[in-house]
Design a protein that fits this description.
- The chain is mainly alpha-helical and 624 residues long.
- Among the domains are: 157 residues, Annexin V, domain 1; 146 residues, Orthogonal Bundle (Annexin V, domain 1).
- The chain contains 39 helices and no strands.
- It holds the Pfam family Annexin.
- InterPro entries: Annexin, Annexin_repeat, Annexin_sf.
- Belongs to the annexin family.
- It comes from Lagenidium giganteum.
């Protein structure tokens, strides 16, 4: 099912040491000031916490306690109240703690708010269920399973306890075969529609232990053999909250974007709005919001933002809309760590991990094959299939196409298309590492080299025990002595210090350099280097120190002046897709125009249609 926890949650669970960017400290100081003295500055809290990604919010929560010796959630609990206070406390803790808080509040007092419990526990991966249990115990000193067992009853209790105590197994193609899917479809039928009454436990066990791809196969076989879907079987065999919980699970597995759009709408439908349910949905599924928002607008002919604006009010509304609009990725992630742009499938292939198979990926492969079959190529069909895919989905399609048709997708498209459209199509028809190799190869092919396509450089990983302040000062001095502090430039040591420095270390080096030598490293590069060497070093330093601003300017530079550099533009959009939410936001701030509109005005034809589809594609897979 969905992994919704940001990387820091997994790292804390694994007891890995976290590193904090100076911007995180700045956010903590602003929160401290907003709550200091008599009264609370709610607008300042909205301004600081609202626009942060889930990862940034988690880092702020961890860091605040280190800096001020107090839990951020406890501080905000004492400073705010009502629906606004509830939402603020949800985003003032790492996501596992936010979910623990939702469940705890749902069980507090007389009775339980079941509709807040099952969305949290249904359809969780084993890893994230383990993290949730640990977070719950650490926060409330209670075992999650024991508390839910005490609070719930009837069929809902059976459903929830099965999900908590025996969550789903990972998909394994050698175990989750068609024969296993048929066997499970038969077990569901025999436990439900095939008998008088319902044998709840085996029915529930089959469902909650099935990973999405297997469940899709089970559902297909169930449809064919028993003339209705598993969803219909649930509706006929269960009632009340148990039915709602199982439907939540199966629809989340089979049609996630459509279902989550409906789930969010259900919190606002009818008389009054369920502010807690709405807040929980927006905060929990933030990583998947691009797909949810798109599906919502398609279903309800209105943007989710406008709907929320009309149904809520005051500080709660302002904060919720800020959270809704916040980027999926951390604006600081590129500075605190390496710039990781490869999706999970690329890392898995490198580690020789078997790639999973998904019906949606097979369907995309079939549609590409059909679009290129026979005389002529259906470019519009290729745009429709490949354009809206996330980087990870594109990688999986490329791997799967070769398996199915014994031909490289890139080679097929190269023979079928040409020009800038063909170049872009080939970039997105391969996993991202191959796309970068393709960019480099083409930059060096033929007479001369296109240096501006080659700039990105490798760097070492940040290590807090090595990259200490003394090391930063030492490197600042080495840069000065190799550059501005001598006659001429000693290029090799200057370059070596720069390109071996991870972003967080470089940030500290630059800070010290400015204090000691009265200008930044950027100015030093501009004075000591020229031509493409200067451009490549500035690319590196600005990407480390001000990534969103620099990438927005870099993309603009490919369209500025006479003519557009289509290859440079295509490469930038494809390579930095994972960071597009922050780039688009910054671009609009810098140029008072959306990046989409700018591209639309500077490009044309199939190239434009495909590039805009890629630009609008989700950063994470919408569904599998």
């Amino acid at each position: 099912m969905f992994n919704i926890y940001p990387p820091s949650a997994h790292n804390v669970y694994k007891k890995m040491k976290l590193t904090f960017h100076p911007t995180v400290d700045k956010y903590c100081d602003e929160i401290y000031k907003a709550c200091k003295g008599v009264g609370t500055d709610e607008k300042a809290l909205i301004k600081v916490l609202g626009p942060l990604s889930p990862e940034e919010r988690a880092m702020v929560a961890y860091r605040y306690k280190e800096l001020h010796k107090k839990d951020l959630k406890d501080l905000l609990s004492s400073e705010t109240s009502g629906d606004f206070g509830y939402l603020l406390q949800l985003i003032a803790v790492p996501l596992p703690e936010a979910e623990a808080y939702i469940i705890y509040q749902a069980c507090k007092g007389m009775g339980s708010s079941e509709e807040l419990i099952y969305p949290v526990v249904m359809g969780r991966t084993n890893d994230e269920m383990s993290i949730l249990k640990k977070a719950f115990f650490e926060r409330y000193n209670k075992d999650l399973a024991v508390m839910l067992d005490d609070e719930l009853s009837g069929d809902l209790k059976k459903v929830i306890m099965a999900a908590v105590q025996a969550p789903m197994v990972e998909f394994n193609s050698s175990f989750h075969t068609n024969a296993k899917a048929e066997e499970d479809a038969d077990r569901l039928y025999k436990a439900g529609q095939g008998k008088w009454g319902t044998d709840e436990e085996p029915f529930i066990k089959v469902l909650v232990s099935s990973p999405p791809k297997h469940l899709a196969n089970v559902n297909e076989i169930y449809n064919k053999k028993y003339k209705n879907s598993v969803k219909v079987a649930i509706e006929k065999e269960f009632g009340g909250d148990a039915k709602r919980a199982l439907l939540y699970f199966i629809r989340l597995a089979l049609e996630p974007a459509e279902f989550l759009a409906e789930h969010v709408e259900s919190t606002m439908k009818g008389m009054g709005t369920d502010e807690k349910g709405l807040a929980g949905a927006i905060v929990r599924y933030h990583a998947y919001m691009p797909a949810v928002k798109k599906s919502y607008e398609k279903q309800y002919k209105k943007s989710l933002k406008d709907r929320i604006h009309g149904e809520t009010s005051g500080d709660y509304r302002d904060l919720l809309i800020a959270v809704l609009n916040a980027p999926n990725e951390s604006k600081c992630a590129k500075m605190t760590d390496m710039l990781n742009i490869y999706p999970p499938s690329a890392h898995n292939l490198y580690k020789k991990v078997k790639q999973p198979e998904y019906p949606a990926v097979d369907k995309a492969c079939e549609e590409i094959y059909t679009a290129c079959k026979g005389l002529g190529t259906d470019e519009k069909a290729l745009i429709k299939v490949l354009g809206p895919l996330s980087p990870d989905e594109r990688g999986l399609v490329a791997y799967r196409y070769k398996e199915k048709f014994n031909k490289e997708l890139k080679d097929l498209l190269r023979s079928e298309t040409s020009g800038d459209f063909g170049y872009l199509l080939q970039l997105i028809a391969v996993p991202l590492p191959e796309a970068e190799a393709y960019v480099l190869y083409h930059a060096c092919k033929g007479a001369g080299t296109s240096e501006e396509l080659i700039y990105p450089a490798p760097m070492v990983e940040y290590n807090s025990s090595f990259h200490i302040r003394d090391k930063a000062e030492d490197d600042a001095d080495r840069l000065y002595k190799a550059g501005q502090g001598k006659w001429g430039t000693d290029e090799e040591p200057f370059i070596k210090v720069l390109i071996s420095s991870p972003p967080k270390h470089l940030y500290h080096v630059n800070d010290i350099y400015m204090k000691k030598y009265n200008n930044g490293i950027k100015v030093a590069i501009e004075k000591e280097f020229s031509g493409d060497a200067k451009k490549s070093l500035l690319y590196f330093v600005r990407l480390a120190l001000e990534p969103a601003e620099f990438l927005a300017e870099h993309i603009e530079s490919t369209m500025k002046g006479i003519g557009t550099d289509e290859k440079g533009l295509a490469g930038a959009i494809v390579r930095y897709h994972a960071y597009m939410p922050a780039i688009k936001h910054t671009y609009e701030k810098l140029y008072k125009k959306s990046l989409k509109d700018r591209i639309h005005g500077e490009t044309s034809g199939d190239f434009r249609d495909l590039l805009i589809a890629v630009l609008n594609a989700p950063t994470t897979p919408a569904s599998k």
